[in-house]
Design a protein that fits this description.
Helix 4 (103-121) packs across helix 10. The chain contains 10 helices and 6 strands, in the order H-H-H-E-E-E-H-E-H-H-H-H-H-E-E-H. By secondary structure, the chain is of the alpha+beta class. It is globular, with a radius of gyration of 17 Å. It has a single domain, classed as 3-Layer(aba) Sandwich (Glutaredoxin). It has a 6-stranded mixed β-sheet. The longest helix is centred in the middle third of the chain and has 19 residues, at 103-121.
Amino acid sequence: MSNKREREKRREQRLQEETKVQSADRRTRMLQLGGAAVLLAIVVVVVLIVANSGSSSSGGDAGNVKEAGEVEKLLGGSDQEGLVLGDPKAPVELIEFGDLQCPFCKQYSEELLPPVIEGQVQQGQAKITFRNFVILGEESNAAGQAALAAGEQGAGWNYIELFYRNQGTEKTGYVTDEFMEAVAKGAGVKNLKQWNEERNSKRLKEEVEETTNEALNKFQFGGTPSFAIKGPSTNGIELIAPETVEDFEEAINAAS
């Protein structure tokens, strides 16, 4: 079965589960707000989605990092600089604010963004910038710094995508040095000594804090993943809430 057919099958299964569960919007990750009923609804949705997408206890294994080849196949046709994927001169910039521990971000990574990457990004119409928006604690900060450090060696998006494909259950302690280094190796980071030094640097720690503050205070996002877009036809950076591949494609076309 092709990756595209697998994504379509997972998407159909996910939509069936969401139809059964009456809850908050499936993409919203609340930032420790709301009453007990809201929190319970979120827990139910997370359990269903995590179980369905395969990001259960089978993930987060430093000794069994999978899908490096699939990630390379997806991203190999696109330029990378830092955490920007695509032609630097592309007229439209799609900005994702995400947390590497977030199961909803994993969904978008596996199901919605690949067609956009294979289409409008590789065609030069758009580039995608990933910005860390950490809402799940210190492990997410460490993961975000690791992605930034990988980006300085041209493997930032490989790191992000491979992390998502091997994501464990949030806040369970799986984001260890060993796990992050295994992901870095699979992502193609060449100089691990340099990567280790940079991911632990004050500079990258402050960058993660800066983009998180930007998401919270400038854009007032309420959860991850959140998206914004900028292009010739936008009024600066505009916030968008895409929920399908078609939503992404239409937003990029409208911003062009």
